[in-house]
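note to self: dont lose this again. the chain is below, predicted strucutre after it. 557 aa total, dont forget to put it in the shared folder this time
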Amino acid sequence: MKLYSDRALAKILDQNIFHQISAVADDLGVECYVVGGYVRDIFLERPSDDIDVVVVGSGISVAEELKRRLGRKAHLSVFKNFGTAQVKIAPSNLPQLGEATAASNFSQSEEATGASQLLTQLGEDGRGLEVEFVGARKESYSHDSRKPIVENGTLEDDQNRRDFTINAMAICLNKAHFGQLVDPFNGIADLEDGIIATPLDPEVTFSDDPLRMMRCIRFATQLNFQIEDETFDALQRMAERIKIVSGERIEVELNKIMLSSHPSIGFEYLQRSGLLQIILPEVAALDIVEKRDGRAHKNNFYHTLEVLENVCKNVECGMRNVELSPTAMISEECGIDSSLENSSSQRSENHSSFNIQQSTLWLRWAALLHDIGKTKSKRWEPGVGWTFHNHNTIGAKMVPPLFRRLKLPMGNEMRYVQKLVDLHMRPQVIADSEVTDSAVRRLLNDAGDDIDDLMLLCEADITSKNEVKKKMFLENFRMVREKLTDLQEKDYKRLLQPVIDGNEIMELFHLQPSREVGVLKQTLKDAVLDNRVPNEREPLMQLLMEKAKQMGLGVRI
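---
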């Protein structure tokens, strides 16, 4: 967080694109401001290439004139139904915009020099530049809809409708007041104090647009800010309103919370506010401790959050090598929560390379959901205590309907999460007993390419406060990892599938796909996994014939 004077802000905005917009606005005789997340991120010293501009008048007219002046270097998209327009400039065209025109107007004072350190060429990350234009407006909402009734308004009206004070700041682009900050709700103070608060009555803010409740928690998580008491009280009172928000929009916010440095902050806020019980009741239900005969089980909700944090920490330490293809993340909005938001997220069915943080999205989901089966499997057994037998299997069956309800992708991503939930107890079972080649081969066969992620999840699942017990578990997992490495080095993965497959079995015995075929296939597979016979045709064929004879099957010529 760094404070800047209006003069320093003018220096930061001393870039050709802002001067181009300024000239257009002045020529058209309208007020023009850069607003929202771009302004917030200046003070947070975070780079941003997504610029939102509010025009007191027609935002479309300013965008059209800007496009005319930039010519072929820019692409214009107009959304007349919403009164908005977008100007995109490809990375290859950015240098053609020329240098900033007003650099000579600023003396190199200590403050200006510090501000210039933040000034980097927009679009240098290769994404190009996007500028969204909208006319200043005021909004009202009906009780059962997120779609606002929109009217033309002033800058004050536009700032009033913003979601949070830190997103309600604006910087003037008109030449006469270039760089002047307009901060009617003291968003700067809230940035300094690390506070998320609404510009107006939070109950009205959340009632008008319930998605703002999710965004409130998301911003608090991403920025590691506290939610103001009055704002949090309103979250609790208005939680039921989240039911009118579509699953797709909730998914976007959940994924942003999940991808933050410390997602447990967000999920604890969701639980305390009552939102989690509505959105993810399977996870919320874990927040209970039952006691009987003086014996209590642990709170599996807070255990889950600890596992989630462990996964994030271990990934940051470079323990994970396999990357997945997550839902593409929607770029940071600038504090506007209307129907104009693009909530669709592109989903990939294939594995591809993403940055480490994004590639862990589905591993983090697996951590969050790994124990959801415990609520249904919990039993009290006299003389034993609380048990959660088969909670992994039960939890795995709960994953598909949960993903479907939240509009999460139902392809490879869901199957990956389901697999990790189902298998997360296997390495522990192996580690608790003698680590045999046979058991590890089976684990490797079932986990496939996701074995490293499974082991990472299992190690993150060790949250015991008993250091001796914790050390023992980690040592056992180390032995499992060593055995996995040994088997992989010997290329056992290539040999795990018997050389005689189901098609050949059906042809030999003139069978249709049936239970008998499955039994014969499993017999061969078990023999290979247990290393009772080599994965070679002759010994496997002999075993196959013996088993077929026991089942009353014969080869038909």
